[in-house]
Amino acid sequence: MIKANFAPVVFAVGVLMLAMVSVAVVIQVYDFRKNFSYLQTLRQDEVDYEVKWGQLLLEQSALTQPSRLEQAAIKNLKMHSPSQDELIIVKP
User: Fold this and answer.
1) C-alpha torsion sign, points 11, 14, 20, 22
2) For position 30, what pLDDT does the model report?
3) How many CA atoms lie within 13 A of 52 on its CB side?
4) Composition of the chain by helix, strand, coil, percent to 5
5) How distant, in Å, are the alpha carbons of 34, 89 from that of 92?
């Protein structure tokens, strides 16, 4: 029969190493959860920015329509189409 002798120092070192590994695992899990939460926040921001980009594209297309530009020129800049008397033709 084999008799195993466990010295208290070896046992203490084993317990200490187990505690250190346990703390390291807890730290890793905490960092993972924190980073995953940040990733989810970034993904939500991405979706929000895509929605905003779509809205801006729609607004841009509405603002650049020729009829809208013509109305803005007439209303804000007091522009009008020239009459025959106001036309000057320049030839090279």
Assistant:
1) negative
2) 98
3) 6
4) 75, 0, 25
5) 72, 10
